[in-house]
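$ ./design --mode recover --in tokens.txt
reading tokens...
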């Protein structure tokens, strides 16, 4: 709701909470859905590289359901289409980070947070 209404700080806060809880209990469907939501937040806050990383992770994860994969794929394709052709081809194809790398990207699980 917060994301749809454009309340990005609130959306980020709620998605971070969902990601932390889902990661703690290892509930992958919720985690992958929340990561897709966070990727959408990143697209609206000029953090395209983070959005691409999250969308790619969700697309490639074996536990991603069809609806979430379709949402992540559409987001990824939209982000790639927005890049200039010369920069899109210059970016090397790399594997997305593993689960721990995603949590580090999101700064989840750091002491003192």
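writing sequence...
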């Amino acid at each position: 709701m917060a994301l749809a209404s454009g309340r990005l700080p609130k959306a980020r806060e709620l998605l971070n909470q969902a990601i932390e809880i889902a990661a703690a209990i290892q509930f992958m469907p919720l985690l992958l859905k929340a990561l897709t939501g966070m990727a959408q937040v990143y697209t609206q806050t000029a953090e395209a590289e983070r959005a691409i990383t999250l969308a790619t992770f969700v697309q490639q994860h074996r536990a991603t359901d069809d609806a979430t994969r379709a949402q992540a794929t559409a987001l990824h394709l939209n982000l790639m289409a927005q890049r200039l052709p010369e920069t899109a081809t210059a970016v090397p194809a790399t594997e997305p980070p593993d689960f721990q790398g995603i949590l580090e990207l999101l700064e989840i699980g750091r002491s003192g947070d």
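exit 0
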